[in-house]
Amino acid sequence: MNAHDALNTLAVLGVFLLMALPSLIGHAHDRRIDRQLRDAERGPGPEPGSGPEPGRTLAAQNSSSKETEPSTATWYADGRRSKKLVSS
User: What is the pLDDT of residues 67-79, one digit of tens each?
Assistant: First the structure.
């Protein structure tokens, strides 16, 4: 491999890097935004030292302990089911 081949290889790698760099920067930016959105959904974390007392465990949250509303998909499916029961 002579010097000319090495320069050609470096030129190709340089062009590839220039083409791939914006994509890699965008991907890193999207991951940072996703992480910020996840953190915002979780809400502020507990302050240091404000956790449960030593030796005390937190009660597990029961799925029925929080009142929920049916989703749009459930409402739509219920409407479709009731229409199927009507005979023509």
Answer: 666 666 666 666 6
| Secondary structure letter of residue 67 according to DSSP | -
Rg of the chain in Å (alpha carbons):
28
- Rounded Cα distance, 18 and 20, in Å: 6
What lies within 8 Å, CB to CB, of 70 at 6+ separation is: 78
Single out the residue of 20, 16, 17 nearest to residue 28, CA to CA: 20
Q: Please give the structure tokens belonging to residue 71.
A: 């989703």
24-61 pLDDT, tens digit per residue, is 999 999 999 999 999 999 887 666 666 555 666 656 65
- Say what the pTM is: 0.42
**70-to-12, 66, 78, 83 alpha-carbon distances in Å:** 56, 13, 10, 19
CA distances (Å), origin 67, targets 18, 42, 62: 53, 19, 11
Angle at 86 between CA 80 and CA 88, to 5 degrees: 120
